[in-house]
Amino acid sequence: MLDQDFAAQIKTLRQTHADIAQVIDVAALRAEITDLEQQAADPELWNDQARAQQVTSALSYAKAKLQKIDAVAARLDDLEVLVELAVEAADAATIAEAEKELGAIHTAVNELEVQTLLSGEYDECAAVMTIRSGAGGVDAADFAEMLQRMYLRYGERNNYRTTVMETSYAEEAGIKSTTIEFDAPYAFGALSVESGTHRLVRMSPFNSQGKRQTSFAAVEVIPLLPEAEAVEIPESDIRVDVYRSSGPGGQSVNTTDSAVRITHLPTGIVVAMQNEKSQLQNRAAAMRVLQSRLLVLQREAEAAKKKELAGNITASWGDQMRSYVLAPYQMVKDLRTEYEVNNPQQVFDGGIDGFISAGIKWRAQQS
């Protein structure tokens, strides 16, 4: 009976995997990888650094996508063998191992299934996230730093290459804002559902009377676009300020004016970078983020105009998209999807995959 239960679940997983492979078009993906490998092997490619980076990045992304699909298929094959051995030997330990692997494959297939919903124009791009403290004083600044740690831990758990590009520290505790780059396939597609206003309710550690405090932080996520798609920005449209990088309490971490702040005068958009060692590197990184933000702004304006012409103006994500409640009870709840967990510490340790999956599915239903 046990082997029949396993067989039925494995059969269902294989069918779901086959459906996913069909949607992704594995044959076309393999052909794309072959073509990109040939381009990457061409010695002339590196005469154009921008083009070389584009090709190698695309190759890395394509290989990662294929590896996930192939890995699930291999794990299903191995699981069938493991189940046969467990049933034949009637070994409880091996059966428990098979059940654990079955659960893990369920999770992997679900992640692949969610990935098939990431079909937006920029979903495959790397992402740049900006977190800003909002209303709530010191608690809000502390909350913004808690979110920074949460997303960095999420990046670690998912093998994203993360870079803190700039952080502005608050005077008493926490941060005013931070900008993080997530360099991984589909980072923007996944993290874009985190955009919005986050709310924290807790007994304030900064209040001598220990009163309950509500504070807010805003999260913005944009795709880090390939340089080929960058918006041209006239020098007359920007103001560039340089300053020394600093850490908490104003402690100097650099002896030269290497940090760069670029202000786009027509829109008022400000981008600051202090992660790189030189002023030129920080300026280049800041310009790339500014170009991405301007292109996103341009696309949003075009989309808003289309909705206006169509007479179908709908509300956006709303002011509060997620609540983190630490007192008087423990809960984190997404207000759009109704997805919730009762372990805030796990969430703040980067365990937000469930929220992201639910958000991606919710977004797909709205379109």
UniProtKB/TrEMBL annotation:
It comes from the Bacteria. It is found in: Cytoplasm. Pfam families: PCRF, RF-1. Residues 244-260 form the Prokaryotic-type class I peptide chain release factors domain. Keywords: Cytoplasm, Methylation, Protein biosynthesis. The modification N5-methylglutamine is found at residue 251. InterPro entries: PCRF (IPR005139), Pep_chain_release_fac_I (IPR000352), Pep_chain_release_fac_I_sf (IPR045853), PrfB (IPR004374). One of its GO terms (cellular component) is cytoplasm. One of its GO terms (molecular function) is translation release factor activity, codon specific. Methylated by PrmC. Methylation increases the termination efficiency of RF2. Peptide chain release factor 2 directs the termination of translation in response to the peptide chain termination codons UGA and UAA. Belongs to the prokaryotic/mitochondrial release factor family. PANTHER family: CLASS I PEPTIDE CHAIN RELEASE FACTOR, PEPTIDE CHAIN RELEASE FACTOR 2. This is Peptide chain release factor 2. The lineage of its organism: Bacteria, Bacillati, Actinomycetota, Actinomycetes, Micrococcales. The gene is prfB.
